[in-house]
Amino acid sequence: MSSVSPCPADGVPHPQLAQKYDPQRERELRTWIEGTTGRRIGDSFMDGLKDGVILCELINKLQPGSVQKVNEPIQNWHKLENIGNFLRAITRYGVKPHDIFEANDLFENTNHTQVQSTLIALASQAKTKGNNVTLGVKYAEKQQRRFQPEKLREGRNIIGLQV
């Protein structure tokens, strides 16, 4: 892996993007993914995920039936379809759209940082749903607040600091 990642939009290398890719996080992700799926990724983390098979198996372990059909990676379109199925499944699982990589980020090896960020977001979502995940953060649950109508009316009498 080169120390400079190209920016897909303009093709200009951006060293700051490469610096955000964290080899320690990659090791943690590898341990989690291999432990969850029971499959070995291989020497190159991104190349091991590139066909989408392990990714589909990962989301199917977290939420059974998420990806109905995992293609044998015979041709490129099979690989891209697996990656696309994985991305749709993790969206349904709760990973936010702004946290998700584009299929070509992985398939064409253009943005490893975004792929890593997506997998960390997936780990965080899995942790939030009660899975035993040591990586990522547990998202806070929504706290719904209910105020009595009289309290809301009292608030109208308070002069705001903006005045």
Automatic annotation (TrEMBL):
> TM spans, by residue?
none
Spell out the molecular function terms from Gene Ontology: actin filament binding
Q: Which GO terms describe its cellular component?
A: actin cytoskeleton; focal adhesion
Task: Identify the Pfam families for this entry.
Answer: CH
Q: Which CDD domains match?
A: CH_CNN1 (cd21282)
Q: Which SUPFAM superfamilies match?
A: Calponin-homology domain, CH-domain (SSF47576)
Specify where the region named Disordered lies, as residue ranges.
1-24
Q: List, alphabetically, the InterPro entries matched.
A: Calponin-like, Calponin/LIMCH1, CH_dom, CH_dom_sf, SM22_calponin
Look up the record and give one Gene Ontology term from the biological process aspect: actomyosin structure organization
What residues does the Calponin-homology (CH) domain cover? 23-126
Protein name from the UniProt record: Calponin-1
Q: Which organism is it from?
A: Spheniscus mendiculus
The encoding gene: CNN1
